[in-house]
Design goal:
mainly alpha
């Protein structure tokens, strides 16, 4: 579910999971029954909450967003897709982002 919430197409990711024979049949049925609009809305909320946590927890990220909204947004989209949501508070999200950013090749 976390991968679906951070995927570029969360509905497609959920459909793929629902077709995965490695998952229990009951879980696959539940995933097939998920409301697609609800999945899309949930994924948007997850992204928004992560974005807000990051900007509140990292003055550097906030300054980057103020200075270069398009560049920061592109980086955030990559981060959101690559790093599973695991932080509950702004400082934790900022740590995850800093670690991810440090591992990126220079651009």
């Amino acid at each position: 579910m976390a991968r679906a919430m951070t995927a570029a197409d969360p509905v497609a990711a959920l459909r793929a999971a629902a077709a995965d024979p490695a998952l229990p049949a009951a879980l696959r049925r539940a995933l097939r029954g998920a409301d697609e609009d609800g999945v899309r809305m949930s994924a948007l909320l997850v992204a928004r909450l992560r974005f807000e946590r990051l900007l509140r927890g990292s003055p550097e990220a906030e300054a980057w967003f103020d200075r270069d909204p398009a560049g920061f947004s592109a980086a955030f989209r990559r981060y959101h897709a690559e790093v599973p949501p695991a932080a509950f508070f702004p400082a934790g999200e900022a740590r995850l982002f800093r670690s991810w950013l440090a591992a990126q090749p220079p651009r």
